[in-house]
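DATA SHEET
Item: assembly model
Revision: 1
Owner: S.N.
Input lines:
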Amino acid sequence: MSAGTVLLVEQSLNGLQFGIMLFLMAAGLTLVFGVMNVVNLAHGSLYMVGAYLCASVFAASGSFLLGVSTGIAGATLVGILFEVTVFRRIYDGDHLDHVLATFGLTLICNEVVRMIWGPTALFAAVPQGLAGQVQLMPGLSYPAYRLAIIVVGLMVAGLLYVLVNRTRLGMVIRASASNRTMAAALGVNDVVLYTIVFGLGAALAGLSGLMAAPVFAVTPGMGDNVLILSFVVVVIGGIGSVRGAFLAALLIGFVDTFGRAFLRPLLASLFAGNVADNAAPAMASLLIYALMAVVLFFRPQGLFPPRTR
Amino acid sequence: MADVLLSAQKVSKRFGGIVASDVIDLDVEAGTLHAIIGPNGAGKTTLVAQLSGELRLDSGEISFAGRDMTRLAMHERAQAGLVRSFQITSVVPQLTACENVALAVQAHDGHSFRCWKPARSDASLRDPALACLNEVGLAAKADRLVGSLAHGEKRALEIAMVLATRPKMLLLDEPMAGMGPEDSARLVALLAKLKQRFTILLIEHDMDAVFALADRITVLVYGRVMLTGSPGDVRTDPKVREAYLGEGAGS
Amino acid sequence: MDRTKVLAMLTVLGLALVPVAAWAFDEPFWIDLFARVAIFAIAALSLDLILGFAGLVSFGHAIYMGLGAYTVGILSYHGITAGLVHFPAAIVVSALAALMIGAISLRTSGVFFIMITLAFGQMGYFLAISINAYGGDDGLSINRQSDFGSLLRLDDLHVFYYLVIVILAALLWLGFRLVNSRFGLLLQAIRFNERRMNALGFPTFRYKLAAFVISGAVCGLAGALLANLTLFVSPSLMHWFRSGELLVMVIAGGMATLVGPVLGAIIYLMLEHVLAGLTVHWPAVLGAILLLIVLFGKQGLAGILLARKKVKEAKPHG
């Protein structure tokens, strides 16, 4: 097995893992937008809550399972709290209201986390059973924990697919996303539905955050960057489309990972001197935004907009 | 036969599985008032959107004053002289009647990047705007905020805005929607006056108004043209009576 | 003269008197604080043009401020110190960025537009972090203020302060002209009903893009001024938090009033200054205030001060 192939496979797995975490975030955002027509900037806070709760409960109790359950439950509860106290009052407002209110929520959440856990990064351990490396092929061993993220993420994506396409709740969600009046005519109880959808989105964000915790730094505001990348995913995928979010998340995951991994050697082979060292990081950081710009230029409604009517 | 000003050939549009307009042919002769009638869901709104450039055609061609317009955007068609009004009153409520019409004057004279001279006191905008308001009988309300106008007055304002763009042809989408009999009568008189000077395509539910004004009528049913003819032809056509007008209607 | 303009004049006059008050109360720090306030007022004013008048919710406006500031920083780093290069370059760079970002994001509207401007804003932040040559994460120090010769010495804080106030006053005046011009009225009409304006024959995209570029250019000017005040630029200038702050200033002060954003900048930065002295967790307090504004009152301070008459009794315009 050549070194090049090994690197390619390894980076593909990294891209897949990153894409899946973005999907879990973006799925919640796009559902909440599709059903309630609300932009939720505080979605990143739910990601953060999941990460902090899981990491600290795991550290205190020694049980990763307990940490995971607390993280998901905590994020869900905080999400429902947001819905009941704030969102319910602003559904009728315009997008500017949504943006400002959820920006305010984000500020509050970041500070509350800072008050409780302090301003410095929290150490999040990898559970014992997943601490090692798995030999995938000759010359390539990959962290078991990252593989677990991929497996869990794909499972959740599958469950979500079944939920949205095969269940009564999913039917109601799809109906609401494409035609509010029709959903009301079907006798959908908006108040309960909205809370459920919001809670679901929050749970997915919490899961994404707690899985990311051992991979990235657990800090106040950790959700913000992921949030904005998730926006890029949602916009590219087409707002309101879970399938679009899935495909766009993988696309972004791969493009971003490959850009960071391969741009430098590519530029180094093309240009002399330290051009590559200077230009590659900048270009890599621009890549996904350039992708977004190109997609929007040709398809302002995103790649996979939900079918209306 | 007079010149054809607006011509639509085999215009079609589908939304998913629903056919909204199905190979529609329509010729509007210069100087006439051509009305389009049809029951709800007949595709009138879709046709207006296609003619005005808001909806792309799936197939077919549209030409206006001898020029192919199929690919022109909404604002380009308006600049070419085909200007529409809206079924739902869509004037700017925070501005006065005169300012609303002045915007339409501005759309026609093409100097909207001017960002220094106060527009409200600009006589080159205000004078033509007042003339148009006068034409529709709103001169006295020129400096009232639009939010305070009555429904009928807002509808007349819509027409004043279209006139202010100096159109070749008016595309009026249900101008009488939601009007009482008194306002309707006033609007019919206004349209009768305007048809002396403009070619008009009128989409309207009010049959009395249509038969009083129209030179030609096209009946749309289920996205298809059922019949185009004089008011007399349409009134007596058995198919139309059956499919649309029903017993005793149009008399 | 209408009340909005009177309020604007009083506000500028008040700002012009700050150095006097600073001298009288022996608080020289006030000049520094209010120079900052006035610079953010310029940035918020630029945002109000598109947010308040054209209804475009740009959540990435900090990028133009950052670009303006970085233009000054990078030119200085390469030994170019002339102010007559710094300021035009800052304006041109941010205008070009606004042209590109606007050309893409204005193809969409509503929530798409918000998310895209937010993403592009964040792109500037990550770009600044990734370029190590100009300090990366640590930012870039600037040796000295833009050089305008002995005529205008920006290293003298008083001179600099009054330069900022003069620019702010001039922009307010230009702004009032603009929003009452053909272009300004058209923007407001587009905000209310773009489709209608399209049907009248306006290529609305062009006018929105023009407004977006003007707004970005003015915001870039604010950035160049900020770089001269702090003599330091860093990626955090472009963080989405900054863009959010600019939005808050416009809303808190009162949208579509021009003077509102200036008041908003004063309130916001004063509040931040006071709260930061009380608790390190001041952003939480700001967040709570923001929530209250959204839930309970959005006409902003200018709205309250001007206490607009009801629509029905408004006077005719001559």
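QC remark: The mean pLDDT of chain A is 89.
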